[in-house]
């Protein structure tokens, strides 16, 4: 979902500048050779069947559609104006209401009375399946209680994190398909267990913000007039499609995701929302997806070719004044009347929209009626009614995710946990509050799309959620300091070097808070800190030999300029932790909990260590991103090319230490019992009754807490396949509350798919011949134990 909160003047202007001739195909102008046949003629849209889980709801949806006129059907699948950021059309005579769609992946956006959850990337850093599920469940509950039918959440692999500079990587989970798949499954399940319908996004190959969509006068990269430039084309080979980018969507489908949102970018030079190959063949065919494909807001560029290419729901359709392209609605009717679009395709689209809604039980038990609407949010009025649905236990959950995601990167001389320092210096704007107030992050007297003032708790855009409050690091640390009779001094001005030097010289310990903001609509220019955080850290470290650095960032930060400074004694990557930021980091700093987060991405020594050219910014009419690194993104690139990063994927220290021993692998069989909707993914040895998701091997190992404090440890399993480059994460297990001296067993259940690769020649998943090396350890490079399976 784009993050537009358009002033009325801009809305009027846009309506004026998008002529109906914009319906002409852009690709013809570009004169490019097609990189594969993506046409509906080759890949007709499969009709829904309801799958194995939604049979009754499917029949009910069919019966409803049979009673609708063509106009009614098209109204239902075309976004309308309404109180939410997206609204489906109602057919009141048949009891089909307008459904309310709201952002986003870290909570109900632009609403007062909802929580600001940690970013997806932060919960990934916990590597804790329980917390990932609980976050989805608690968020889903707030969507439901806020009167939302469909949550535009979660990000399940688009972006996956191909580029470390990707502006929206923070919204998703791991820069890895398996990790993202686990989190996608659990989050979809959690959200939908709360009664809300989930939208897994953005499908597919959506890996950069730059040139993502040419309704671009709102975006920082605007080079052509509106609607002239084609969106970036992600040109992805078949192996990378299956082994990387599709994996998380397969897990979302298995979890029963109601909707999938197609993305802004093109795939192989066809708009992803019109791409019959990726939508009809792959998503609805191979993954057997039974719900509806919904466009991103502005991702539709035409009528007939989009619905024939597999799109089921046009958003925002004729809503929001039609500014993002008023496709479908009345515009679609002539194509149905002249046979360009079969009416059965329209029927199927309506059935796909209604089936998961009926299955969810919302038709009988809808979310409560509320009175907020997006107009009040974009243009707040004094009598706007806000409805607070937050629960006390959700605050504790958010705080725990913050604690358990904090990733300790460096800790020497036992500086952490802090004892009872006499004087604590707290330095940096990232330690303090938003001087413009929480509801005014951009200084424009509107509900902000993000917050760049004060401590960074979340990235910006549609992945932002208005925090009900923010516990700042200063507030939490100062409170603790008073209770233990310490003194705490703060300087929030990042460039007031004189005040900073004076303050930290008198301190026993200086905690410097730095940040790297990232948001929708813009990729990160560099991997450095904002507000010259490098100079800030060096200024503090030059004046205090007990310097601790805490970073709030939405992706990797290059640390070379200061990490080896001997006065920088400890460094924590605290990610985007949401509203409980300060309390969470204080728990870690003072040792109430031992840190147990591990990096969900790789921190290199420089940008040059990552795959090259992963953000394309050639200012041309049809920009092309060739995913030439194929499956070698993030740690897979580093492992395949034998590059040692600064901090590897999966890395994170503890206040304790662990010993790994006794790896053991055995073949087992446990029939898949977690699939809610079955996919049709082809695999070698499919006998009609077995599943790609059956557990066929189990690896165990032992982990002993060899340190002095109770701690958690995330054990990880990586596979190396014969004749294949690089390692693959294929399991993780978080041991919680290990007492000093205690030994516990970690278990990794490997499904057939986890031991498989995709064959482009045979178009199926297969288990390679020969030994598959399985390694277990504390990170993607600290692989202490090795065994093999064949
Ligand atoms: C893109 O085109 C290439 C070359 O024709 C093809 O091998 C690949 O499968 C296509 N990928 C997608 C996602 O369409
Ligand atoms: C979908 O069903 C219609 C009839 O309702 C049929 O004409 C069409 O061929 C079916 N499409 C596919 C791809 O099977
Ligand atoms: C921060 O400190 C610098 C250097 O003293 C000063 O120029 C600047 O005005 C200060 N900023 C604010 C907001 O006070
Ligand atoms: C740190 O600085 C203090 C004050 O200058 C000094 O007393 C102390 O020895 C230094 N500690 C180390 C480890 O260098
Ligand atoms: C699936 O099976 C496992 C192991 O037999 C069991 O622990 C788990 O509870 C089962 N899950 C479901 C959803 O039935
Ligand atoms: C300290 C700080 O970063 N202040 C900024 C708050 O936001 C406004 C508006 O964007 C900026 O002008 C300030 O510099």
Q: What is the CATH architecture term of the largest domain?
A: Alpha-Beta Barrel
Radius of gyration: 26 Å
Order of neighbouring strands in the sheet with most strands: 1-2-3-4-6-9
CATH topology of the largest domain: TIM Barrel
**Relevant CATH superfamily of the largest domain:** Glycoside hydrolase, family 3, N-terminal domain
Q: What is the total number of structural domains?
A: 3
Distinct small molecules bound, one entry per kind: 2-acetamido-2-deoxy-beta-D-glucopyranose
In terms of structural class, how would the helical and strand content be classed?
alpha/beta
Number of strands: 25
Quick check: average pLDDT? Answer: 92
Features:
single chain, 790 residues, alpha/beta, Rossmann fold, Immunoglobulin-like, 3 domains, six-stranded mixed beta sheet, globular, binds 2-acetamido-2-deoxy-beta-D-glucopyranose, hydrolase activity, hydrolase, Probable beta-glucosidase G, Glyco_hydro_3_C_sf
């Amino acid at each position: 979902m784009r993050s537009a909160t358009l002033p009325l003047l801009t809305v009027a202007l846009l309506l004026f500048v998008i002529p109906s001739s914009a319906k002409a195909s852009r690709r013809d102008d570009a004169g490019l050779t097609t990189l594969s046949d993506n046409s509906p003629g080759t890949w007709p849209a499969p009709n829904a069947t309801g799958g194995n889980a939604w049979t009754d709801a499917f029949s009910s949806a069919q019966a409803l559609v049979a009673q609708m006129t063509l106009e009614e059907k098209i109204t239902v699948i075309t976004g309308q104006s309404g109180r939410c950021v997206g609204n489906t059309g109602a057919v009141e005579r048949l009891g089909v209401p307008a459904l309310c769609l709201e952002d986003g992946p870290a909570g109900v956006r632009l609403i007062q009375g909802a929580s600001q959850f940690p970013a997806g990337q932060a919960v990934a850093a916990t590597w804790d399946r329980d917390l990932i599920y609980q976050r989805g469940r608690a968020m889903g509950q707030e969507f439901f209680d806020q009167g939302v039918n469909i949550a535009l959440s979660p990000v399940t692999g688009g972006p996956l994190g191909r580029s470390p500079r990707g502006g929206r990587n923070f919204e998703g989970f791991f820069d890895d398909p398996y990790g993202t798949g686990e989190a996608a499954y659990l989050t979809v399940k959690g959200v939908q267990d709360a009664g809300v319908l989930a939208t897994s996004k953005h499908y597919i190959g959506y890996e950069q913000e730059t040139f993502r969509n040419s309704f671009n006068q709102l975006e920082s990269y605007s080079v052509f007039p509106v609607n002239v430039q084609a969106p970036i084309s992600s040109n992805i080979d078949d192996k990378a499609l299956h082994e990387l980018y599709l994996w998380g969507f397969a897990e979302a489908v298995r979890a029963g995701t109601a909707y999938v949102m197609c993305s802004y970018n093109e795939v192989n030079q066809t708009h992803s929302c019109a791409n019959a190959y990726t939508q009809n063949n792959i998503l609805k065919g191979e993954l057997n997806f039974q719900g509806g494909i919904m466009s991103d807001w502005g991702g539709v560029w035409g009528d007939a070719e989009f619905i024939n290419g597999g799109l089921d729901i046009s958003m925002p359709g004729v809503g929001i004044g039609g500014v993002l392209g008023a496709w479908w609605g009345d515009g679609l009717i002539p194509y149905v009347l002249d046979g360009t679009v079969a009416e059965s395709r329209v029927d199927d689209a309506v059935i796909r929209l209604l089936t998961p809604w009926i299955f969810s039980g919302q038709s009988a038990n809808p979310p409560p009626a509320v009175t907020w609407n997006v107009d009040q949010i974009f243009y707040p009025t004094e009598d706007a009614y806000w409805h607070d649905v937050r629960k006390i236990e959700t605050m504790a959950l958010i705080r725990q995710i913050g604690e358990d995601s904090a990733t300790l990167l460096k800790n020497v001389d036992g500086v952490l946990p802090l004892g009872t320092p006499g004087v604590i210096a707290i330095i940096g704007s990232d330690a303090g509050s938003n001087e413009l107030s929480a509801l005014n992050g951009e200084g424009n007297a509107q509900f902000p799309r993000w917050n760049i003032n004060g401590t960074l708790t979340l990235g910006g855009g549609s992945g932002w959620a208005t925090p009900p409050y923010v516990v700042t690091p200063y507030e939490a640390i100062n409170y603790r300091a008073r209770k233990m009779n310490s003194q705490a001094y703060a300087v929030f001005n990042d460039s007031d070097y004189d005040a900073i030097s004076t303050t930290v010289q008198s301190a026993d310990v200086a905690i410097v808070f730095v940040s790297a903001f990232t948001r929708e609509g813009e990729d990160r220019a560099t991997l450095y800190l904002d507000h010259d955080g490098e100079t800030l850290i060096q200024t503090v470290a030059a004046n205090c030999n007990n310097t601790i650095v805490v970073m709030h960032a939405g992706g990797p930060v290059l640390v070379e300029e200061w990490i080896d400074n001997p006065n920088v004694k400890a460094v924590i990557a605290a990610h985007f932790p949401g509203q409980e930021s300060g309390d969470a980091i204080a728990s870690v700093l003072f040792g109430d909990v031992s840190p147990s987060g591990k990096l969900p991405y790789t921190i290199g020594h420089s940008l040059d260590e990552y795959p090259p050219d992963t953000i394309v910014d050639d200012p041309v009419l049809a920009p092309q991103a060739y995913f030439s690194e194929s499956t070698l993104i993030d740690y897979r690139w580093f492992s395949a090319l034998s590059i040692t990063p600064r901090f590897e994927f999966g890395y994170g220290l503890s206040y304790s230490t662990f010993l790994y021993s006794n790896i053991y692998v055995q073949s087992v069989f446990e029939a898949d019992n977690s699939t809610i909707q079955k996919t049709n993914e082809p695999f070698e040895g499919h006998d009609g009754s077995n599943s790609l998701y059956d557990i066929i091997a189990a690896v165990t190992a032992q982990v002993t807490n060899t340190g002095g404090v109770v701690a958690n440890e995330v054990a990880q399993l990586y596979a190396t396949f014969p004749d294949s480059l690089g390692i693959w994460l294929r399991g993780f297990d978080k041991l919680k509350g290990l007492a000093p001296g205690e030994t516990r067993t970690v278990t990794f259940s490997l499904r057939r798919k986890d031991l498989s690769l995709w064959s482009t020649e045979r178009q199926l998943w297969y288990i390679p011949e020969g030994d598959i090396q399985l390694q277990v350890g504390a990170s993607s490079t600290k692989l202490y134990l090795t065994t093999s399976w064949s």
